[in-house]
Structure formats: structure tokens, C-alpha cells
Amino acid sequence: VAFRPSTYRNVDHGYAATIHKSQGVTVDRVFVFGTKGFDQHLSYVAMSRHRQQVTLYTAESDFKTFGQVVRTMAKSGAKTTTLDYENQESYQAATADFLVRRGIDTVADIIPALQATLERQRAWIATQARTVAELWDRAGTVLERLQAVEQRAPTIDLPTAITATPGDTMVQASSLAIVRTTDIRPPSPIIAAYQGHPAVTEFTISTEHEARLSVTSDATWIQSETQLRVATTAVFSDPDAAMAAIQRVTTAPGAKAAELARQATETPEHFGAVLSRSTARTAAADLAPHIRAQVATFARELPAALQQESERRTAMATAIPALSANAVDALQTIEAARLVGGDSAAANATRLTLGNKNLTAELVAANEALTARFGWKAFGPKAEDDDTAKALQRVPEAERAALVAAAPTLAALRGFANAAHFAERRETAHTVAEASPLRSARIIPALTTAELDTALRADDAGRKYRAEAERLAVIAFGSSKPVAAMLDKIVADPRVAADVALSINTKANYPAPLVGKLEGLLRKTPDAARQNAQASLAPLVDAIGTYGDYLVNVKSKILSNQSGAQAQAKIEIAAPSPGLALALGATVDPADARDVAAKVAANPAAVTELVKLRTSLENGLARDDRALLTKGDAAAVATRLNMSPDQAQRLIAVNQQSAQLAKHVQEHQRQAIKLSRAPTIQR
Questions:
Q1: What pLDDT, on the 0 to 100 scale, is given for residue 75?
Q2: 461-470: long-range contacts (C-beta < 8 A, 24 or more apart)?
């Protein structure tokens, strides 16, 4: 067969192909030409395309022996990754160099620090062990006195157990006996008299000077100063004097890093006597980066230091009152009860103290002053080393030893204040058991025509569409009055303009009444302006149609929202029964929430009431109203739902507590289902 190559440019010889192209092909006989580029993957494909025979050919320039052919065709062609080189010395050296440049510590670097930390922890554990042994001895003394008490303990009814029967609401199950520890408390060497801390309003140095000292004593500054000192030693005959001179200019207000660096490089003698004029400039070049670093560090850290010092002095202006003998006595009672009976006994003693309103008010006021002076975490259960250091900085140096000694007393004060806070929230929660509903059902009347008209006219986007139509009317007719009446009719009934076509080229696509009215207006336009008005007609018709379409959607949305609000208003949100109210109040304390949830989950009537309450809250309130409840903004809730602030606060409490209780009940039920499905072992 003969043909011109220019005619059949895509025709090629069919007896030769690459290995990649031959994948999936099967023929009778195959001839393979092997090269150094072969590997075991290419070899397998090439040598498995035949039915009857395969022949391998190689060039002597590529392979001298058959063994070279075998090794080449057997080598792996898999691509390598960085992990293939992780054990090579060059790779490990490059990795170590990268970590050093980025300041990343390796395990080998941090092992000494970890060992030092472990040693400190072991020493601390040993100290605490000795302290526990001493406390145990004191607890033995308290126990002996407790056994000698003959007076029976009074009882106080507390909602600590919630039970219910099927088909009935939950009722209070039992009372909890409170052990009176007033007469059995031993003198505690831990909780001692506290004399308070007076306010500090006068300082010997200014705020700015104190902030400067804070910056220059920071570890970052000291490290920079150390590096600068090494550089000054090679330049100046008196490095200390030169360091002082450099620090004066780098910490001066408005210091310019570039100018100071240039001055240090070109005229180092400005900062002090140099060692040698011939080598001074060469060695002084090393000063420039350190000076720039100091100026940048000081400028960056000084504002934060000023803010911190200002906050410290403001806090020190708060005086912490001394605790009365009765207050110290109450804290000692609580801690003694804790030593004897643990946290449960301490809680009972705390409840007795909460019964004394004057004493509770004194301790709560002292805790508030403590928070204002030292912060909310200091001396509390979540206090860290930084919080303790901050507290020590907020008292004069002469009073710091007394503050350290008073730490156990202040920690006990914190614990009592937290208990008082939870008790106050429980007391507030108990008010939800009132008989009146949280929100009564009501009827919202339908919107009048005037109200709907006002709402449509007040829509911001609608006003923009109308303004655009009036602007085009001014272009077409010199005034917007010709179309004002038409736009008012669209507001009254947006469907008037609903059929306006999107095209602006063919008048036939526009509603005949609308086009006819506009053309009638056009005929009244003077001849000189009629051509411009004619060109503006189509955009004007389009703008009027867009305005009508938008108002149709807005009207539908307003009516839909009104219908939803009417349906929600018909749902009454009933107050919880006394039993459920007690369970809701118990969820205030996270330690009791799960136990109460387990008791509620075990009673079908309680679960049903809780579900009805959550359903009425979800369906009886709009999404925005529920968001305000979750946020806890009583004033906004009262305004939006037209209720008193007390009713709003009550509704907020029930919503938050019922959501928390429902969450714990669901978790308990899921756990119970999971346990019920667990496989059993047959013996």
C-alpha cells in the first residue's frame, strides 16, 4: 500500500510500541529491546505480552554480561520519599541544623530540664506527705472529741434526694442530718486570724519607671544584654560604662534603631573610649544588630509593661478587710469537719454557716475584695504559680510573708464564697416552683392593612428599589410625580407589577396597562425631551417591575413571620412542678447534676414533664427569643416578650437549667442503652 505521508500524517508503523502503550495487549510473538532504563515493573509488562514466544535483545554498549541484564531488570522502580533517608548521617545533620535555627528543642535537649522537674516534684511530694501525716494526727484529736459529744445533731431539710412514682410528679424524699461541729472543733494551726491588707495608693517611684525596670529585668532583655556585652568587650576599654551609655539611648523615648546602629558603627567612641582606633570600626559593626534588637524589644514591651503596672496599682488601691473572730471561727469549723468527715462533713458545716446571714455577708464581702486585689484565681482551687506570683506583687514587700502565711485561710475563704454562690443560685432556682406559668398563652391579632403598608414602606431594600424607579422617572418625565401614584398602588398590592417582563427591548413583553399608562405620560412630555424619555422608558418599566417583585416576597415573608408568631403565642410555657423545680435547682452544682439526672431518668413521669417543658420552650419561642434566653440578658428578654424583669430572670433560669438537665438525662439514657446491649458470657 502506497500513500503520501502528507496525506496520512497520523499513520505510523504498527510493529513497534513502547512498553507503556503495550499494557493490556496480547500478541503471538513479542520482541523486546532492553535498555538500562528497565526495572522489574517495566520488565514484567514487556515480558508478559506474548502467547507463544518472547525474545529479548540488548545492545552490547549497554550490557557486557548477562548478569548485568538480570540485575537491571530485577531492580525496584519504586519512588523514594524523605523517610527513606532518615537514618543517613547527612539527613540527620540537616535536620539537627534546622531545629537549631528554628529554636526547636529535641528530646535530648529537654531531658535535663525534665529530670530537674521530676526531682522538684519528688521533693514536693515528700513535703506533702509530711503535711498529710501531721493533718492525720490532728484529725485523730478531732475524732476523739467528736465521740465525746452527747448532744444530738439538729436536722435541716435539704433537697438532696429526688424520687417519684409513676403517674405522679416528683416529691422530696428525705432530709439530711447536719452534724453541729461548733463545740467539737479543735484550734486549727492552719486557719489563723487574718488581719487583712490595707490599700496602697502612694508609691516611691513612678509608673513609667517601674514599667522600665520590669522590661529591663525580663529574661528576653537580659539575654539581649548579654549578647551586647560580648560585642562591647571587643570595642571599648570600659565595657560597663559603654553598656550604660548604650542602654540610656536605646531606652530613651523616641529612640531610632537605624540611627543608633549607624552611630555605633561609624563613631563608636560616642559611647565610650575604644580599645584601638584601627580595629574599632571593624569590631563595632557587631554592635549594630544588638542595638537594633534592644530598641525594638524595648519599644514592643514597654506599652504592655505600663498597662500591667497601671492595673497592679489600681488593684492595690483596694483594701482587704480583716476577718472577725467569728468569721475565722467559722472557717476553722469547716476545715475541722473536712478533716473528720471529708467533703460531705465540710459541706454540712458550710450550710450551718450559711444560715448566719451577717457572717455570710462578711465572708462574701472579704472574698470580693480579695478578687479585686489579687484576681479571681488567686488562692482558689484553680490557682497556678503565676497567680500566686501576681498576688505577691500586689502587696508591699514587708507584707508578703504575712500573705504567704495567710494562704490557707484565704483558700478556705474562697471555698466558702463558692459554696455561698451556689447556694444563692439554688435559692433563685427554687422560685421556679411557683404556680403561675412562665409565660401565659395569648392571641396575637392579624396585621391590619395600614400596619402591613407601613412595614412594606419601611423595608430598606424596598426603598432603594423605589428610589431607583423615581430616579428613572425624573430622567424620563422630569419629575417622579407621574409614577408616584403607580408606586403607591404597587405597595397596596404588589401583584400589580408582578408580571413585568425582564426584557427591556420589546414593549410587547410588558403588561399592556402599565405600558399604556407610561406612554400616555410620554405623550405629555415636551418634544425636545421626548427622545431621552423614550430611551428611559424601558429601564423605568423594568425598575417598576423589580420593585413589585421584591414587595411580593417581602409581603409573603412578613405574613409568614406573623403566622409563626401567632402559633408560638398560643403555646403556654408552664412552670415546672415542685419536684422538677428541685431537680433543676440541683443542676446548678456540676457535682450534683449527674446524680439528679440519673434519678430523673429512672422515673417516666419526671422524664415526660421535662420533655414537655423543653418542647414548650422550643416551640413557644422564636429562634431570636431562645438566643436571648441562652445569653441570659434579662432586660432584653423582658422587653421582647413583654414581661417583668423578675419573670424574665425566672424564664432564663428554667431554660438554662432544663437544657442542662435534659442533656445529662440523655447521656444517662444512652449509657443505659449501651450497657443493655453489652454481650454476656454464658457459663
A1: 87
A2: 461/550, 462/547, 462/550, 462/551, 462/554, 465/543, 465/546, 465/547, 465/550, 466/547, 468/543, 468/546, 468/547, 469/540, 469/543, 469/544, 469/547
